[in-house]
Recover the amino acids of this structure.
């Protein structure tokens, strides 16, 4: 005879699945931000290597546009980098909080299942 899973346990399992999906989404976002940060760091390095007066082109959508002011471009790239670093830090904190909640819920579920087995097995 199949035992019915208590409503409380079903709710906690559903919450666990939601937290796992949320964690996966946050990790993917963090990875995308890290990729963009590396691209920005590389771009900054390359622009800084260029001599004053060299032609620099910036990609805007599917167009390449000539940059008139190297310093303004560097300033813009550095501002973008700061923004992405802040976003990365925020995502790392969110990831940590979700991991903690996930671990807590997993522990509660394991304890609940153990206690149910002990009561049912006695």
């Amino acid at each position: 005879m199949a035992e019915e899973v208590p409503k409380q346990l079903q709710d906690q399992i559903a919450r666990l699945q939601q937290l796992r999906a949320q964690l996966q989404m946050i990790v993917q976002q963090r990875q995308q931000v890290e990729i963009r940060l590396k691209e920005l760091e590389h771009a900054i390095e390359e622009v800084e290597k260029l001599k004053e007066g060299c032609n620099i082109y910036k990609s805007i959508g599917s167009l390449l546009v000539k940059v008139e002011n190297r310093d303004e471009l560097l300033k813009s790239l550095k501002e973008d980098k700061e923004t992405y670093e802040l976003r990365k830090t925020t995502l790392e904190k969110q990831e940590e909080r979700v991991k903690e909640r996930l671990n807590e819920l997993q522990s509660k579920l394991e304890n609940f299942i153990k206690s149910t087995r002990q009561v049912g097995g006695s």
About this structure: The longest strand covers residues 56-60.
